[in-house]
Design brief:
Layout (H helix, E strand, L loop, with lengths): L1 H24 L17 E4 L2 E4 L21 E5 L5 E6 L8 E6 L8 E3 L4 H5 L3 H11 L10 H4 L1 E3 L3 E6 L7
Antiparallel strand pairs: 1-2, 3-4, 4-7, 5-6, 5-8
Length: 171
Amino acid sequence: MAMILRSLLILLLSTLIFSYITGSLISNYNNVQQVQPPVWPGIQPSAGKPLLARGDCGGAFHCNGLGGTPPATLAEITLGNDQDFYDVSLVDGYNIAMSITPYRGSGNAAMQGIAAQGALEVLNLASQLLIPVFKAACPKAYSYAYDDPTSIATCTRGSYLVTFCPATTAD
């Protein structure tokens, strides 16, 4: 009986230690939908393949590293062992208001986001001319390729809330 209790205690302690170690080293991802009924925005039937009104990946459910068809606002989060990087990108155009808000973790953690419809879609101008417009409207949004210094935020071991159509967004 003592041997069984000892084995159970060792198993319990091992499980708790493993859970603590892995839980503290891996960033959390939770998908929470606060809309009833659940939303899959823009999907339309197309011979058994998804067809999105915006951001489609050639009828596939997974883009496999490829971006969706522009215009598409992107939430970009790169999880790392020591540091995560995140931004809201307008490089491929704008199609929805979005924000990324970190919670837990430490570092340069700040809300990133964009609220207004992008000028590229409204004015139909070349994107090079619109960089100052995007930056003036939302300085923290990733507006063009290599816009890293002003647009990418970092956080160490954080958890992230991605909100579509937020009530308020970062400037």
